[in-house]
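Quick log. Single chain, no ligands specified.
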Amino acid sequence: MKNLIDFKYLAQFILGIIIIVGLSSFSCSVLMLTDSVKGTITDADTAQPIEGVLVTVETVYSPSQYTTTTDTNGYYEINNIISGGGLVLKAEKEGYITINDGFDVGNHTKDYQMVKTN
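-> predicted structure:
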């Protein structure tokens, strides 16, 4: 009888461990959602696309940083951003005022117009 009681407690203990591990894996996966941001960057005066703009996305709650540059059409896209919180986009190119834009998590299309410094 004692062995049966010990087995019952051991089974409950193992089941509890399995549930805890499962819940912690689930909560980690919820916090590790991925975001994306894409868009076009144009000149504020001419409305022409700007090639070679360095676009950086930083996550607010972790030190992660994602970068790309705009193509000949001024288009950029960054996918699979693991954030768990807000994002900050920075767009910079020599001769233009740097853009800094904060926004919430999710998949976004963010178009910007850059202003020349002179």
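The helical segments are 2-31.
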